[in-house]
């Protein structure tokens, strides 16, 4: 066989190898994009890109006069109050104000769909999206009256029919917990100290039990943990199955089979439930009593809030990291962790409203906060929305609107499906932040 022939065959083989490699690359890319378990390195690398170009987009206003409001809503519109909760589901954004006014907006058109209040005394205090049956549960209250609960299908809300819902748990004093993990609802009747468990899918009653002197309740996968008021020498604890209400041996978990026990003037103790052995004891000088705990069970970690700063720990009692952008010049703006932080469903990121330390604030005035996106595992800030960045690509006539959007934020929500951040402020406005190429500010 001559050299030219050999060379031709080798060239042919090389061409085949190149095609094969290209085919493998394409297949790997397809597998990565279609897989529900994206490669961690790829996710880490792309995380900043989701947020780095986020800018002020537009405003949602519950008091917008473009659409006529029903007569029974007019008393709610007499004065603006701060936004206390924002949640989203199926391309609908729900905005709740401290006054009890609740409005639903389309996240596709940004138009107000309807108000969730059915009458002038319907003061809505809490919202819960029930993904088990695609409905919104509202908790309303009247003066000196127990909360009233109502379930309304998302489809009915989309058709501007909030009155198509129905009442829930009318015989109960209040709902202790809407539990998404186990698809259960735990209620309590104060009159007879009876707890009841309902199915969150169809609200049918399952079973009841009676406990008194309950000091704290924790619900995890498969169980309910009841901690009772301290007696003279110990703290009673009871673990029961959330499926049937029966007592369970300590072979179930609270969070990855771990229980944290804190007492005044005593070291933090981390208990392994299956063996009831103490895994770690952390000196109270190192672990000062935090104001809030957040279990990150997917990561086998827990997050604490102390003095408006977040810390991440493992279940060996070791400090994993502190969120660098929450320290010193960057603390959380408000001590209310629940309203001003959002932890993503994969528990990789935390989005927070923090104090802003931008050095270049010559273009703006009264800037008091920034929206920070931090990696929970590394503690690094991966993206930040502050006044300087938010003003980019905004014409001068809109600058005041942008700076006002970062002042006095009272609640924050991240729509993971649409990659948009919603913030509500003390003036009753909701602002939308997105990284779309075509920025726009809605005109009144």
TrEMBL record:
Gene3D superfamilies: YVTN repeat-like/Quinoprotein amine dehydrogenase (2.130.10.10). It comes from the Eukaryota. Residues 1-21 are annotated as: Disordered. This is Transducin/WD40 repeat protein. It comes from Medicago truncatula (Barrel medic).
């Amino acid at each position: 066989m001559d050299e030219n022939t050999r060379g031709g065959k080798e060239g042919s083989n090389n061409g085949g190898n190149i095609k094969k490699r290209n085919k493998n690359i394409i297949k790997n890319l397809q597998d990565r994009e279609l897989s529900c378990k994206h490669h961690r390195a790829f996710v880490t690398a792309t995380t900043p890109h989701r947020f780095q170009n986020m800018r002020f987009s537009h405003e949602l206003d519950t008091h917008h006069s473009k659409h006529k409001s029903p007569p029974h809503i007019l008393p709610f519109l007499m004065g603006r109050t701060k936004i206390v909760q924002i949640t989203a589901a199926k391309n609908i954004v729900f905005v709740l104000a401290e006054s009890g006014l609740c409005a639903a907006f389309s996240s596709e058109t940004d138009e107000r769909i309807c108000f969730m209040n059915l009458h002038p005394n319907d003061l809505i205090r809490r919202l819960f999206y029930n993904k088990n049956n695609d409905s919104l549960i509202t908790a309303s209250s009247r003066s000196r009256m127990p909360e009233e609960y109502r379930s309304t299908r998302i489809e009915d809300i989309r058709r501007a029919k909030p009155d198509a819902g129905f009442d829930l748990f009318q015989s109960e004093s209040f709902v202790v917990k809407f539990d998404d993990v186990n698809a259960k609802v735990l209620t309590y009747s104060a009159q007879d100290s009876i707890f009841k468990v309902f199915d969150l899918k169809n609200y049918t009653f399952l079973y009841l039990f009676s406990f008194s002197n309950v000091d704290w309740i924790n619900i995890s996968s498969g169980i309910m943990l009841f901690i009772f008021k301290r007696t003279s020498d110990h703290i009673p604890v009871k673990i029961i199955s959330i499926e049937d209400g029966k007592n369970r041996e300590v072979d179930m978990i609270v969070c990855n089979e771990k229980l944290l026990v804190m007492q005044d003037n005593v070291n933090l103790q981390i208990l392994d439930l299956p063996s009831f052995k103490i895994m770690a004891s952390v000196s109270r000088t190192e672990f000062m009593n935090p104001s809030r705990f957040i279990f990150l069970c997917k990561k086998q970690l827990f997050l604490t809030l102390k003095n408006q700063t977040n810390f991440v720990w493992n279940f060996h009692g070791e400090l994993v990291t502190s969120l660098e952008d929450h320290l010193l010049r960057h603390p959380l703006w408000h001590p209310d962790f629940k309203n001003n932080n959002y932890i993503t469903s994969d528990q990789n990121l935390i989005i927070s409203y923090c104090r802003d330390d931008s050095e270049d604030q010559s273009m703006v005035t009264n800037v008091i906060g920034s929206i920070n996106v931090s990696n929970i595992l590394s503690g690094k800030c991966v993206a930040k929305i502050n006044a300087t960045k938010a003003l980019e690509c905004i014409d001068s006539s809109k600058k005041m609107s942008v700076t006002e959007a970062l002042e006095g934020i009272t609640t924050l929500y991240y729509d993971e499906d649409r990659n948009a951040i919603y913030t509500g402020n003390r003036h009753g406005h909701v602002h939308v932040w997105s990284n779309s190429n075509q920025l726009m500010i809605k005109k009144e």
